[in-house]
């Protein structure tokens, strides 16, 4: 069977122009020429065209198809494997798009007042979050309804606007007006995203993605401004009970160890969720890090640390912000008390053994002076 180019186009549903293009590329060239000078396609050409069409359905380029047709079965297997991976990625993207649309639809039913800026910000964050969050973390994120429904976004807008105004006016982060707004910020974040690991990843995404910063109005300069003010809030609470001398190490220590504190809160929360006791060696290792950093914040003064314990019982605001929660604090305190009890139990006597053996009067045994920590 021999076919002219028009006949082949009609039978295959292709255009004459496409067949001419294949011919020009050397991908499909008519093998026969008639006595009248017509170029004709034979059955081998038609079979080759069917292979080309099959490979095109794999979304391959014409160059890739040409190489495959001239190649071997191993090349084809490799291409098929690559195409399977590509299709799986497309399926994943389609599923993610479906999830985004379902989220937006749910939010629309919950709150009809959300404006276009919010929708654009939400879509942008959805498109970026898989870059920072695992599927399990995204599922956990959806459990935080204030974020999911847009309530946090709406509550933050006036706070962000006011903080921006203070920054533009060159007001120091320690100014009372600034601290009021930052306290509102901390309370909103603490209530909406209590999980420290999610909060850390969200903060990382915010710092690394200019598009998120542009839509939220919170850039890296504002985040630094808020962090300084957050430390100042804690400092001023402590100053109600402590002298300036006792508080002199607090600010520089917390600025220096801010990331370490966040990582510590994340680890302890993971231990809690995994059911690991605060007295377990793996937990005690991190709780010892807590003690070390806490003592650093108070100049390694045991007397000051004892006062801090009492302050924390009176001031619940000290557990708000930075990923710290009462749950994490209580967990750390349990571990600290266990370590202190162990130290008490193993404290050596200050009286020589031979004096005891002689039944002579002895002084009370002294326990090793302990380093206390944040409670």
TrEMBL record:
<feature type="domain" description="HTH merR-type">
    <location>
        <begin position="2"/>
        <end position="71"/>
    </location>
</feature>
<dbReference type="InterPro" id="IPR009061">
    <property type="entry name" value="DNA-bd_dom_put_sf"/>
</dbReference>
<dbReference type="InterPro" id="IPR047057">
    <property type="entry name" value="MerR_fam"/>
</dbReference>
<dbReference type="GO" id="GO:0003700">
    <property type="term" value="F:DNA-binding transcription factor activity"/>
</dbReference>
<dbReference type="Pfam" id="PF13411">
    <property type="entry name" value="MerR_1"/>
</dbReference>
<dbReference type="GO" id="GO:0003677">
    <property type="term" value="F:DNA binding"/>
</dbReference>
<dbReference type="InterPro" id="IPR000551">
    <property type="entry name" value="MerR-type_HTH_dom"/>
</dbReference>
<feature type="compositionally biased region" description="Polar residues">
    <location>
        <begin position="344"/>
        <end position="359"/>
    </location>
</feature>
<keyword id="KW-0238">DNA-binding</keyword>
<feature type="compositionally biased region" description="Basic residues">
    <location>
        <begin position="366"/>
        <end position="375"/>
    </location>
</feature>
<protein>
    <submittedName>
        <fullName>MerR family transcriptional regulator</fullName>
    </submittedName>
</protein>
<feature type="region of interest" description="Disordered">
    <location>
        <begin position="344"/>
        <end position="375"/>
    </location>
</feature>
């Amino acid at each position: 069977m021999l076919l002219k180019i028009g006949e082949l186009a009609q039978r295959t549903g292709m255009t004459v122009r496409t067949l001419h293009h294949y011919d020009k590329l050397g991908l499909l060239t008519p093998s026969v020429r008639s006595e009248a000078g017509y170029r004709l396609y034979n059955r081998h050409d038609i079979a080759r065209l069917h292979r080309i069409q099959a490979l095109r359905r794999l979304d391959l380029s014409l160059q890739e198809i040409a190489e495959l047709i001239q190649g071997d079965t191993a090349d084809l297997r490799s291409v098929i494997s690559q195409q399977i991976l590509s299709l799986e990625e497309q399926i994943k993207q389609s599923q993610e798009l479906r999830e985004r649309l379902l989220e937006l639809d749910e939010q629309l039913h919950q709150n009809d007042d959300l404006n276009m800026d919010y929708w654009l910000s939400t879509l942008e964050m959805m498109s970026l979050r898989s870059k920072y969050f695992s599927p399990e973390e995204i599922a956990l994120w959806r459990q935080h309804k204030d974020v999911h429904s847009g309530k946090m976004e709406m509550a933050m807008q006036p706070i962000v606007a006011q903080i921006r105004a203070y920054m533009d006016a060159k007001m120091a982060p320690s100014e009372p007006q600034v601290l009021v707004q930052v306290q509102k910020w901390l309370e909103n974040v603490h209530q909406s995203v209590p999980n420290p690991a999610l909060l850390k990843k969200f903060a990382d995404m915010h710092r690394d993605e200019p598009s998120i910063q542009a839509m939220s109005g919170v850039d890296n300069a504002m985040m630094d401004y808020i962090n300084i003010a957050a430390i100042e809030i804690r400092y001023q609470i402590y100053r109600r009970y402590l002298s300036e001398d006792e508080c002199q190490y607090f600010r520089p220590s917390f600025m220096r160890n801010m990331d370490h504190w966040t990582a510590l809160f994340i680890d302890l929360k993971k231990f809690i969720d995994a059911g690991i006791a605060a007295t377990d060696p793996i937990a005690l290792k991190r709780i010892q890090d807590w003690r070390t950093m806490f003592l650093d914040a108070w100049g390694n003064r045991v007397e000051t640390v004892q006062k801090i314990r009492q302050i924390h019982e009176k001031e619940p605001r000290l557990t708000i912000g930075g990923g710290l929660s009462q749950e994490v604090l209580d967990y750390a305190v349990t571990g600290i008390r266990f370590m202190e009890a162990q130290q008490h139990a193993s404290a050596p006597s200050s009286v020589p053994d031979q004096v005891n053996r002689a039944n002579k009067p002895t002084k009370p045994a002294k326990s090793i002076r302990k380093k206390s920590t944040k409670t």
